[in-house]
Structures are given as structure tokens and as C-alpha cells.
């Protein structure tokens, strides 16, 4: 169970702070709920049962873990897919898992696809654009929270440390 004040990753919302743990006014049961405030959307709150298993929730990485993760960025390998129909299903699984390594691989893969298509005069489709946007929001939000920097500065931070674009 998380504690009040903890920062967690919550589903595809991203980094949230546990603002409160209590019974709700909108339910007659004795269940405890987390009240979550998205770190980068403070005008929104989320109530979720403490014991839910429907949405992934986990602690964010520590500062040291974030630094180590960024150091390992060049070693993250892109996945191979049998066909284009498999890719969206895998992306959905990645978002549900919240795996930082899988999110990084997805970001790198879509960047490679974008560069390849540009050279042929083509562009990413909307699903790929939305996918990389969500992956960046989740991963860069967590790294930003762990490093106490803004999410918009994470790509430059990674580039400065590793020399890699993201």
C-alpha cells in the first residue's frame, strides 16, 4: 500500500501523488480509496480503490534508478514485429505494463520509423504519432519526477548524458 505523499505511476495517466487515503463520500462501502493528483495536471483528481488490480500502479523510480536508466538508454533494443497489425497490440500491452524499458524501446522504434519514412517522403500514421506521444508522456514524466526536472527537459537531459536522440 502506498502512503500519503508518495509519487506513483498510475496507468496511462502517468505520475501522480497520493494526496489522501480514505473512505469516499460517494460510496456506501468501507473500501479505502487513493485520491491521486497527477503531477503534471494538478487541476485534476482521481479516486481509485486501494486494492484495485484493474489499473497498473507502482512507485516511481528513485533518482539513482532514473540516472542509471538514462545511462542505459543507448543499450535499449527495439522490438521486431511480424507484421504491422501486431504493433498496436504490443503498444497497448506496453502501456498497461508501465515498463520503462519497453516504453523506451517503443520511443526509439517510432523515431527510427519516422526517420526512415521521411527519407522516403512519408510520415507516421496517427496511431504511431499518438503512441509515441503517450510513451513519452509516461516515461519522460516519470524520469522528470525522479530527477526533479520538467518533463519537457528530459529529452535534452538524455541527449546530454548519452548523445542519443529521443
Walkthrough of the structure:
- It is a single chain.
- This protein has 166 residues and is α+β, with helices and mostly antiparallel strands.
- 43% of the residues lie in helices and 16% in strands.
- The protein has helices spanning 63-71, 86-97, 100-119, 126-147, 154-162; strands at residues 7-10, 14-22, 33-38, 46-49, 57-59.
- The chain has a 5-stranded antiparallel sheet with strand order 4-3-2-1-5.
- Helix 1 crosses helix 4 (126-147) and helix 3 packs across helix 4.
- Residues 1-111 form the CarD-like/TRCF RNAP-interacting domain.
From the alpha carbons, calculate the radius of gyration and give it in angstroms: 18 Å
Q: Which sequence of strands runs across the widest sheet?
A: 4-3-2-1-5
Structural class computed from helices and strand pairing: alpha+beta
Classify the oligomer.
Answer: single chain
Supply the number of helical segments: 5
Largest sheet: 5 strands, antiparallel
Low-confidence stretches: none
Q: Distance between termini?
A: 33 Å
Which of globular, elongated, flat, extended, rod-shaped describes the shape?
globular
Strand content: 15-25%
Helix content: 40-55%
What value does the average pLDDT take? Answer: 92
Number of strands: 5
Order of helices and strands: EEEEEHHHHH
Domain CarD-like/TRCF RNAP-interacting: 1-111
InterPro entries: CarD-like/TRCF_RID (IPR003711), CarD-like/TRCF_RID_sf (IPR036101), CarD-like_C (IPR042215), CarD-like_regulator (IPR052531)
Pfam family, one: CarD_TRCF_RID
Protein name: CarD-like/TRCF RNAP-interacting domain-containing protein
